[in-house]
């Protein structure tokens, strides 16, 4: 969408909701708390629409065998090639893949909307059967302005926790963020 129609539509939406959705700073904008809330809710609604469309298609194609996978963004690069190979080997089976955060996938498993998920260990593991794989290595990516020379040895949690960090946080429940914060605190740092 071109900039003027988009700006006009945003303004109409703000007028309709009677609240600003963005803070404007010259040519820059950033979402207000209400704007960010609306964005998250809109994403959730879009996921629900996609799920409803998928489930409707599944009902229409009940005779064709299908398998519904879910995977978190973290595991996408690991398992997508395997799922592609599975599809090529068994083209008669319809394979549906949902990529979203782990807590959403846990909900889809509970609802029966997917058959299998590649995620971090569930926050609440009761009600799930799971198989553990070799752990995925997490890496810290550091801007050269913060660290011009690579360190001689790997960072420990204490040293890493003292750096400016950007960490992803699950929409709900616990995940890698909470695990890292806990490890930082155990090493004596409160990032």
UniProtKB/TrEMBL annotation:
One Gene Ontology molecular-function label: transcription cis-regulatory region binding
Protein name stated in the entry: Cyn operon transcriptional activator
Question: Which keywords describe this protein according to UniProt?
Answer: DNA-binding, Transcription, Transcription regulation
HTH lysR-type domain residues are 1-32
Task: Name the family the entry cites.
Answer: Belongs to the LysR transcriptional regulatory family.
């Amino acid at each position: 969408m071109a900039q003027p129609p988009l700006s006009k539509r945003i303004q109409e939406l703000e007028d309709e909701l009677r609240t600003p959705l963005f803070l404007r700073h010259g040519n820059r904008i950033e979402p207000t708390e209400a704007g960010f809330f609306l964005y998250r809710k809109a994403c959730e609604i879009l996921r629900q629409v996609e799920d409803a469309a998928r489930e409707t298609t599944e009902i229409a194609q009940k005779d064709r065998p299908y398998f519904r996978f879910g995977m978190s963004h973290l595991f996408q690069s690991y398992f997508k090639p395997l799922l592609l190979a599975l599809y090529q080997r068994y083209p008669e089976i319809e394979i549906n893949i949902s990529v979203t955060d782990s807590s959403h996938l846990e909900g889809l498993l509970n609802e029966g909307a997917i058959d299998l998920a590649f995620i971090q260990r569930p926050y609440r593991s009761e009600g799930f059967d799971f198989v553990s794989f070799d752990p995925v290595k997490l890496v810290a990516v550091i801007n050269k302005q913060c660290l011009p020379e690579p360190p001689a040895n790997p960072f420990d949690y204490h040293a890493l926790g003292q750096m400016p960090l950007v960490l992803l946080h699950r929409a709900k429940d616990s995940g890698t963020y909470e695990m890292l914060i806990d490890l930082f605190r155990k090493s004596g740092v409160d990032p």
